[in-house]
Amino acid sequence: MDLAERISTLRRVNGLSARQLAALVDVAPTTVTRIEAGQVSPSFDLAQEIMAVLGEPIGFIGTADVSAIAAARLVLEPKLGVAVTPGVEAWRQRWARIGLIDVDGRAVGGKEADLLFRAGRAARLTRRPGAVDFKEGSTAYDIAEALGAAGVEYAVTGDTGANIYRSSAGEAWPVLYVKDLERAAEAAGLERKQPGSFGMRVTLIPFDGVSELGRTTIDGITVAARDQVVLDAYGGVDRMAEQADILVGRRVA
User: Fold this and answer.
1) Cβ neighbours of residue 200 under 8 Å, at least 6 residues apart?
2) Domain boundaries, the chain
3) What does the pLDDT average to over 41-62?
4) For the chain, what is the total number of helices (H) and then of strands (E)?
5) Is 159 exposed, middle or buried (0-12, 13-18, 19+ CB in 10 A)?
6) SS3 209
7) Cα(113)–Cα(199) distance, rounded to whole angstroms?
8) What are 152-180's pLDDT values in tens digits?
9) Secondary structure of 88-128 in HEC code, one letter for each residue
C-alpha cells in the first residue's frame, strides 16, 4: 500500500472527512484530496504530521504520541498537574480546529468522547513507549491481586478497566500501568513473549507521569481514571472500542 492509499484508508478508519483531516494538520482540503489521489507528494514533515494524527507515526520506532494523552486529559481535567509542552499544545490546536475544544481550552459539550477517540487513535495502546508484552494466562484481576500483595503500584486500564467501571464484556487483553515493571513482572509471575510474536498477551506499561494519574480503587482493584480507560480502550484492539462507547454512553450494553 503506497502512502496516498494508506492516508486515504486510515482517514476513513478514523472517521474523518478530507476537510477534517486538512484542519487537523492545518492545510487546505484540496491538499489532502490531491495527496490521496496521488497528484502530489507531501513533504516528509507533512506526511509525518498526517500519519501521527491518524495514529500511524512514521519511523522505525513507531511509538505512540504520549502528548496526545496529556492533551486530552488536560482538556477534560485542567487541574491534573501535567505540563503543557509544545507537543501538548499542538494537539490542543489541532482539536480546536475541528471543533472539539472551545476558546477556553475545554472540551465542547457532547464532544468529550470524540476527543478521547482522537487521542486514543494517536496514542495507540499497542505502541506505548516502554510497554512490555508477556505470555497470556493471567487475567488483569490475577495480576492486580499479586501486585497489591507485593506492594507494587499499578493501575488497570483498557477493556478490564472498562468492565470495572461498568461491566460490558469479557477481557480480551490485560493491560496495566505499573511503577516498577521488572518488580511487577516478578510479583505476578509473568513470562516475556518473544519479540515479534503475535497472539494473545498481557502488557505492562511503565508509569509515564500522565496515564496513571487519577487512579481510583473499585472493589479492591486499582484502576486508571475513567477518561484514561476510555482513551486506552479506543486505542486498543478487537471490541475494546465498543466497550469505550458503552462507558461514555454511545452504545447500549
Assistant:
1) 136, 173
2) 3-53, 126-247
3) 84
4) 12, 6
5) buried
6) coil
7) 29
8) 999 999 999 999 998 666 778 999 999 99
9) HHHHHHHHHHCCCECCCCCECCCCHHHHHHHHHHHCCHHHC
Which architecture does CATH list for 3-53? Orthogonal Bundle (1.10)
* pTM of the predicted protein model: 0.89
Segment 36-45 long-range contacts (CB within 8 Å, at least 24 positions apart)? 36/4, 36/5, 36/7, 36/8, 36/11, 37/4, 38/2, 38/4, 41/3, 42/3
**Amino acid identity at 30:** T
Write the CA distances from 227 to 15, 19, 128, 205, integer angstroms.
20, 27, 17, 17
In words, the CATH class of domain 126-247 is alpha beta
Which residues are paired to 159 by β-bridges?
Answer: none
pLDDT value, residue 197:
63
Reply yes or no on whether the pLDDT at 244 is more than 70: yes
Over residues 239-243, mean pLDDT? 88
Angle between helices 240-247 and 112-122 (to 10 degrees): 150
- C-alpha 167/C-alpha 218 separation (Å) is 12
Residue 249: is its pLDDT beyond 70?
yes
Q: What is the DSSP letter of 239?
A: T
Predicted confidence at residue 253, as pLDDT, reads 59
Measured between alpha carbons, how far is 154 from 157 in angstroms, rounded to an integer? 10
pLDDT tens digits along 4-39: 999 999 999 888 999 999 999 999 999 999 999 999
Check if the beta carbon of residue 212 is closer than 8 Å to that of residue 184: no
